[in-house]
Design brief:
Layout (H helix, E strand, L loop, with lengths): L10 H14 L3 E6 L2 E6 L25 H7 L16 E3 L4 E4 L15 E2 L4 E7 L2 E6 L4 E6 L5 E3 L4 E5 L1
Length: 164
Amino acid sequence: MSTDGGVRFDPEAIRALAQILRDTDLTEIELVEKDSRVRVARTAAPVSYQAAPVPAPMAVAVAPAAVAPAAAAAAPTTASGEIDPKHPGLVTSPVVGVAYLAPEPGASPFIVLGARVEQGQTLLLIEAMKTFNQIRAPRAGTVTRILIESGTPVEYGEPLVVVE
């Protein structure tokens, strides 16, 4: 195997680099020595996510007096019932990963429904490529909706939380 400079590398060294890729789950590694370099890359195995089945909500009779507060809570939705992507308090996922509402299993969650949060406060974590990304409140307010469950995969731009 030849590098950019025409220098030949030991096949055992290349096998060792490939083994490092397998051991560390990396997809690429590059070794540079003086004016030569070797790069070993592999394609990552495709990741598929299967959404957990969501139980259908139970029908509940609502008295006319209770309709007004429910309408206020539904304010960030469009006429079709979807979350309004232009809502100023909507927090969306900046990355693809797995969302966690608590810093570790068994710990208290960062937020609960109805909690008061300050701008910049951590709302949840998203693990992407073995890195935990803090998702912070874009403004101070009250958490009116939590749209994900802890441990669920999320996509880029997916609505996570609404802060009113």
